[in-house]
């Protein structure tokens, strides 16, 4: 099945826009948002720019995915083949960003190997989900996880520029905890149960192409494990921060 031109164009547009945000918008805007930014080492400036780009795209993708879930009829959870142009365009936006992030990671030597592998797998799953108009509920469920990423990336920016002890950092951390739990634990658990029910209740599910099984079974397994692991680490961080705060207050 061929990928339609409209989604190729959206992916290309998202790719180019992501590069513009990283190379042009971020260097111009970040010094106005964070006064310490211009004095940061080059490596840290690149980290902040990368987090800013991810913040912008995650906000766009996350809000679109939750809007589609609550306010449209394009993501029925009990059918296999069902086209959803809104979901596929959102996938195109996300995939264009991921490809741009890959290019920037390789050209600017930022990010770790785990991030590189994550982006490669996300590019594969994005193209598969865009190409085949099936399991749109599951595809949108993955995109809904992006709701927590603006706060994750804001935390990174605040930390790198030296705002780790500010009230903004604390409130952003609380928002990250809440949105992560909702978007990456509750939402994905419901989505996973519905995905498994669909696989068990519909024999035709097993007739889908192999790439779809790799995309969705692999994606569901990988992201669920990572989500619960990351949430565990976030909770540990909250406990540690609270303990340190109490110790400081007692002194």
TrEMBL record:
Signal peptide: none annotated. GO terms for biological process: lipid homeostasis. It is found in: Membrane. InterPro entries: TLC-dom (IPR006634), TLCD (IPR050846). Keywords: Membrane, Transmembrane, Transmembrane helix. It holds the Pfam family TRAM_LAG1_CLN8. GO terms for cellular component: endoplasmic reticulum; membrane. SMART domains: TLC. It comes from the Eukaryota. Residues 43-243 form the TLC domain. The chain crosses the membrane at residues 6-30, 51-71, 91-111, 123-148, 168-196, 208-231. PROSITE patterns: TLC (PS50922). Its main location: membrane. It is a multi-pass membrane protein. This is TMEM56 protein. The lineage of its organism: Eukaryota, Metazoa, Chordata, Cephalochordata, Leptocardii. The gene is TMEM56.
